[in-house]
Amino acid sequence: MGTASSMVSPGEVIEDGYGGEGGEACEIPVEVKPKARLLRSSFRRGPRVIGASFKSTASVDLEYAAEYERLRKEYEIFRVSKNNEISSMQKKEAKLDEENKRLRAELQALQKTYQKILREKESALEAKYQAMERAATFEHDRDKVKRQFKIFRETKEKEIQDLLRAKRDLEAKLQQLQAQGIQVYDPNDSDSDDNQTTVTAAGTQCEYWTGGVLGSEPSMGSMMQLQQTFRGPEFAHSLIDVEGPFANVSRDDWDAAVASLLQVSPHVPQALWSNTVRCYLIFTQETKAELDIFIKKHTSVLRRICESLGHFYLNVFFPEENAASYAVERKQEIERSSLCVLLLKSTVPSSVVEDCEEAFVKNPDGRPLVLYLRTEEDHNLNGPIRQLLERVNAADKAAKIKVVDHSGSAEEGASLIYAQLEKIIKQELLGLEVTDVESKDSGMDEGCEEDSGDVLWDLHDEQEQIEAYQQACSGTTSQLSFQKYIDRLNDMIAAPPPTPPLLVSGGPGSGKSLLLSKWIELQQKQSPNTLFLYHFVGRPLSTSSEPVLIIKRLTVKLLQHFWSISGLSMEPSKILEEFPRWLERLSARHQGNIIIIIDSIDQIQQAEKHMKWLIDPLPVNVRVVVSVNVETCPQVVAHTPLRPTESQRGQEYSQCREKKLERHCRSASTCNALYVTLLARMITSRSCGLLEKSLEQCLQCQDTMSLYRLALKMTLNSLSTDRERHIMREILGLVCASHNGVSESEVLDLFPEVELPVLSSLLYLLNRLCIVTLRCGLIRFQHLQAWEAVRLEFLAGGSSSTTYREKLIHYFNQQLSQDRVTWRVADELPWLLQQEEDKPKLQLSLLNLFVSQNLYKRGHFSELLAYWQYVGKDKSSMATEYFDSLKRYEKSCESEDSMTRLANLYETLGRFLKDLGLPSQAVAPLQRSLEIRETALDPDHPSVARSLHQLAGVYVQWKKYGNAEQLYKQALEISENAYGAEHASVARELESLNNLDTTKILLFALTSAAKVFLTRSLEMRQRVLGPDHPDCAQSLNNLAALHTERREYEAAEDMYERALDIRKKALSPDHPSLAYTLKHLAMLYKRRGKLEKAVPLYELSLEIREKSFGPKHPSVATALVNLAVIYCQLKKHSDALPLYERALKIYEDSLGRSHPRVGETLKNLAVLSYEEGDFEKAAELYKRAMEIKEAEPSLVCGNAPSRHSSSGDAFSVRGPAPLPHAQR
Fold first, then answer.
1. Three-state secondary structure along 653-689?
2. What is the arrangement of strands in the sheet containing 276-282, beginning at the earlier edge strand?
3. CA-to-CA distance for 79 and 73, rounded, in angstroms?
4. H or E segment and range at residue 354
């Protein structure tokens, strides 16, 4: 090592870094002590440094030893401390193990306790369910006993009235005899018993429901034996004494008049054959251009008009070149046609003359007629044309034929024909007003503009039943002897009550439907006062076999005879539950009998579950007849051989063949009406040369099913081309795979290569062989056996149905994509997707709002619910799906028509939710519908009155009668201004107000009775417990709530204040009962406008909630908002602002920034900022509140900004609401 002198030379100047002056360097001897580590390292690794002394080496060793000793001591200290830590941790570990064992033991004990409690809970739930079942059973038994007692009482009353009436008649006759001087013999004066006469009843009363059936085992009464009961008309009804101007009006005439006024059955135009507008076009080659242009350009418009009202449209025409080969079909089509159009120019072929003779000459008044005459410029007509026109003019005595005389182009002529047909169809056939034309063209509403929402009726269901009844009446060509069975039915009607349901049993095709329809026809002629309710069930899984639709239809038929028809619920369970009650109510006021006929009750879906009312005691004047299929035939047509009519029987029927047929039809499987009818038609449809062969083939068929299969084969063989055979197979396959059948227009759409004459001829042939029929415009199977035969013959037992279903699904999906949602799409598409088990597509079709609207407005409520249940959605999730779909649809609505349709959809959704029993969720869509109609139409438009009516109905169901009354009055005012005082809409609103007043009177009567009991309870508690006992406060609270309900606010205020004083003394300051009284008293103060007195109560309520729940609980935020509202109403905005801000912070932290409560608070803050003059902040807050409301995923009962809305926001910052009785 060196010294510092080695670094600086003598005489060198050193600069001072800090600004000092320079100086001369000098030598300074400095000794530097080296580091021990550095010396140690040098000593060990290298040779000894020259010049180092021995003394320096020894000092290094000593220092190393001292360092070593120091490190050793540090190590020992470290080791001891770590050992101590280890021992401490081992002790802690042992302690934790013990704690773990203890906790494990406690956990096991808790698990055992939990299992025990769980078992106790399950047993308690099981006991609860058993108790509920026992209670339900007891309730049912009690109602049953009440009905039996009522029947017994009414029957005895009827007997007493009959005896009194007979007594009066006898006394009158006795007086007449005495007045004539005739000596009346008194048997009591005789000394012997020879003159005594004993009168014996013609028949004795048998045990209840032991009567037999028509050739069958005991009826449905074998399911349950009931006690013998009696029933008669209402006793008070027979004592009515009518005075005044209607004293001479009979009760039957009055009931008939009322029923006609309250007729809710749909009007089916007589000119429409089977729900189809059939336009028969007669043309020549010269006018074919007009026909082609009309079909290509105008037919789609007419079809859309008819489909929008639930009807079909079909052009029927036969080309001139092959018209002669379709003579029978042409005549049949003319008979079915709704209107006929004759297109002439200069030539008249023979086929045109024949059709004109049939349509224009023989029956000119049967249908609207249009004559299109294309003339030349000189207007000269040749001889045949002139003669034909003279004959037509001579037959048209009433001058009803519309003549279109045209001399221009073919396109102009086609337009003239279209204009005339459009006017006829809308006004004469469909019954539309001229002003209704444009509103019906859209096809979305289907005539629902006048729908009040009280009764949802399906036009097609009713027409289907009418046509089924008519077909059953004329469904056979054989002369069948039903007289003894008709006599049995008549005896059942005349039998004394109680009368069990009569069961008509028989094999398939045995004539049950024919017997019942013929009997109904005879009874309607003989007993005009008898009310008939009939239903003919079609094939399984069809609409006619849906039990809820059956009961709803029968119920609506009953409601025609009541003053009010607004009490019918659409909920399936309620419909099934309420039908016996409606039946009992009507039977008490109906003078004649009520006969219910259900044909093929065994085909009804879940008949055992939904038809239980049949085994309950029925009213005295109600009779029930049901038919059911059994394996053995009841011999309805026994000993009735085949007897074709004389026109059908020719010389080819020898006596030998008749005997052979008679022997063949005597077996159990061949002796029924359907087999005999089908056999006769198959034989008589063959030519003479093929008669013997076809007869032998038919005689080999031992049952109806094999005979049907033979008929199908024979029909296929009779067709001339493979194309026609293929068309027949396809049509029958589509009908078999569909829900309710297919229409002729749908067949023509699915098979464009098929011409109408070919289709008409094929349908005529299949109809003649009892295979298919046209019912309600749809091609359906005439009998269940025909459907089964087609499944076996053409669909391989049903395995090929998927192919035909896919064709129909594709066809109806195409209509959906073109925005053509008709009743056919709604009926078929969801059902087909359900049969294919395609849940995603089914849900997608249900979310098409117009499909669901169509199903609901036609009363298919239960069917719509069943579809949603199938896809796994409950009521709430279904409502959410619909609401979200409506929100998406609303974004695409811009025009006035689209907004009108949107309002209809919102209204339908609200009514649907109301019928589901969700009134709180139904309010929002109904209010939205009201907003749209007020904005898009006019605040005084009749549609606004309809929205108000629907919204009021929800409030009635919600028991908010004040709001409902206000809305009904507003709807009444709008209807009177729009229609006048004599319109049906005005009568509907008046009836609703009357029903509402009746409900309020009944409610007031119930509250009066409750007031008596609550007052007695309060007096008893005060006497026994003392006036300051907490139980007395409870009675005071109950009485105060009752007075508030009755709007007796002064008495309610006094009792709430007394209850508050008692609870303040007896209970702790944070007791829930005290908070309850504070809350309701504060609400009462606020309602009465006593805001100053309400403030301390709301403040105390806030304090209690903070102590009970903590300062950050949502309930505290609600109390803050309530108090802030009071401050705002008192104009103390500076006090309200921090409360709102604190409540907003609590809501955002606890519920999230998108919760509806956050939006409500933001809206109140926006209003407060607006009133303070901070408009920018108010706009920002209100915008955020609206974003939260629009993003809301579920239905909430919001406040609609409508001038007609009666509901207020829960946290409104406006002034105090006036009392319900105050003038507005």
1. CCHHHHHHHHHHCCCCCCCCHHHHHHHHHHHHCCCHH
2. 312-316, 276-282, 339-344, 369-374, 402-406
3. 10
4. helix 350-356
What number is the average pLDDT over the span 309-335? Answer: 88
Residue 1125 CB: number of other CB atoms within 10 A? 25
CA 1215 to chain centre: 41
Residues 6+ apart with CB under 8 A from 849: 882, 885, 886, 889, 905
Question: How far apart, in whole angstroms, are the C-alpha atoms of residue 1042 and residue 1039?
Answer: 5
Structure token digits, residue 21:
């002056």
Q: What's the pLDDT at 810?
A: 92
- Cβ(491)–Cβ(689) under 8 Å? no
Name, in order, each residue with C-beta under 8 angstroms of 545's C-beta and a sequence gap of 6 or more. Answer: 537, 538, 539, 603, 604, 605
What would the pLDDT profile of 211-262 be if each residue is shown by its tens digit?
Answer: 333 333 333 333 322 222 333 333 223 333 333 333 444 545 545 544 444 4
Rg over alpha carbons for the chain, rounded to the nearest Å, is 46
Of the candidates 1012, 1008, 942, the one whose C-alpha atom is nearest the C-alpha of residue 970 is 942
Distances (CA, A) of 1075 to 486, 1045, 1064, 1081, 1097: 74, 20, 10, 10, 9
- C-alpha pair distances (Å), 807 with each of 823, 831, 1076: 18, 14, 64
The amino acid sitting at 337 is S
For residues 494 and 623, is the Cβ–Cβ distance under 8 A?
no
Is residue 846 within 8 A of residue 868, CB to CB? The reply is yes
Q: Is the dihedral of CA 515, 518, 521, 526 positive or negative?
A: negative
pLDDT tens digits, 1035-1044: 888 888 888 8
Pick the closest to residue 1085 from 1136, 1133, 1130, 1134 (CA basis): 1130
As to burial, measured by CB atoms within 10 angstroms (0-12 exposed, 13-18 middle, 19+ buried), residue 537 is buried
Domains along the sequence of the chain with CATH: 276-429 (3.40.50.300), 459-641 (3.40.50.300), 877-1004 (1.25.40.10)
The CA–CA distances, whole Å, from 180 to 189, 230, 724, 850 equal 22, 41, 85, 79
- Residue, of 1041 and 20, whose pLDDT is higher: 1041
**pLDDT for the residue numbered 481:** 60
- What are the phi and psi torsion angles at 576 (to 5°)? -65, -30
Question: What size, in residues, is the chain?
Answer: 1224
CB 824 within 8 A of CB 746: yes
> Cβ of 1028: how many Cβ atoms within 10 Å?
12
| Stretch (H or E) spanning 81 | helix 54-179
3-state secondary structure 256-279: HHHHHHCCCCCCCCCCCECCEEEE
Amino acid present at 485: Y
Contact between 739 and 808 under an 8 Å Cβ cutoff? The reply is no
Interval 927-964: pLDDT, tens? 999 989 988 888 888 888 888 988 988 888 888 888 88
The token pair at 61 is 């060793």
Helical (H) or strand (E) element with 338? none
487, exposed or middle or buried, with CB in 10 Å at 0-12, 13-18, 19+? exposed
Q: Which of the four pLDDT bands, split at 50, 70 and 90, describes residue 457? A: low
Contact between 797 and 787 (Cβ < 8 Å) = no
Which of these, 511, 336, 446, 467, lies nearest to 740 by C-alpha position? 467
At 110, the amino acid letter reads L
Element (H, E) at 111: helix 54-179
Q: Which residues contact 897 (CB under 8 A, 6 or more apart)?
A: 442
The answer to whether the peptide bond before residue 384 is cis (omega within 30 degrees of 0) is no
**946 within 8 A of 923, measured Cβ to Cβ:** no
Residue 862 structure tokens: 């239960």
* Nearest Cα residue to 597 out of 663, 514, 710, 657: 514
